[in-house]
Amino acid sequence: MSYRANVFEVMMASPGDVSQQKGIAEEVIRDWNAAHSRTMSTILLPVSWETNSSPEMGDRPQAIINKQVLENADLLIGIFWTRLGTPTGEYASGTVEEIEKHIESGKLTMLYFSSTPVSPESVDTEQLLALREFKEKMKSEGRVEFFDSNVDFRTKFTRQLAQTINENSYFAQERDDSASASDLVSIFKSSVPEEVRISDTAQNILVEAAQDEYGMIFVVKAINGYVIQTHGKAFTPKNARERAELEGALKELERADLIVAEEYEGPYKVTTKGYDYADKVRTPNS
Fold this sequence. Notes:
Blueprint: E1 6-13, H1 19-40, E2 42-47, H2 49-52, H3 61-68, E3 75-80, H4 94-104, E4 108-114, H5 125-141, E5 145-147, H6 150-167, H7 169-191, H8 200-211, E6 216-222, E7 225-230, E8 233-235, H9 240-255, E9 259-261, E10 268-270, H10 272-282
Parallel strand pairs: 1-2, 1-3, 3-4, 4-5
Antiparallel strand pairs: 6-7, 6-10, 7-8, 9-10
């Protein structure tokens, strides 16, 4: 069954050495959606420059990514290990630029730093030093999280993501605004007659039944399925398709409260709503 929900875009910002952790974060987000999206009317949508940006000319590559992806993000998840990333010309790296601009916009940012051991031979010393400087800067400006393994990261991120969505005022306000809007829609709908849409076959049956003296529709069993009789007219199917259409038409009328079964599988009787609908069908310009 469909449901209304607020969609929050989650920007995944990270250098190339934490692809595993980025994948874990996206899995956790999908798991959160599976467990909570319907009850909380909230969907978290992971986005990143790799999957959500497109070719465009006329500006710096990172500036284009910022415009296409970052500016629409509600939450940013930053993950680091040994690298800071490639400089953009204005910032130490594309990831840093995304984080700095997201923070400047006043939006929520969650940063994670890995302390997992790494082989010295595989480390770019310049990148590592730049990362340490950035890490100290971020620590002085807020709270960051550290993890020492993929399992540790999954455990912490799962818990902290849930806390953020449940308790942060930004997400709570959006949910409240959505609920208020839904309430207004419900009130509006309750004061306006619902427009009923049914198939032509269902309309034909209803119009005939509304002219019947007793407003009755009879279902008569036959060799080729059954025949629908009302107002002296018989709706007789010639093949399996027509039988299916007639069966569907009765179900449509019943679901729309235009007819009601006197007993199991009929006979059916036209309701007040059904008579009103039939009148509109017969005189569409009135």
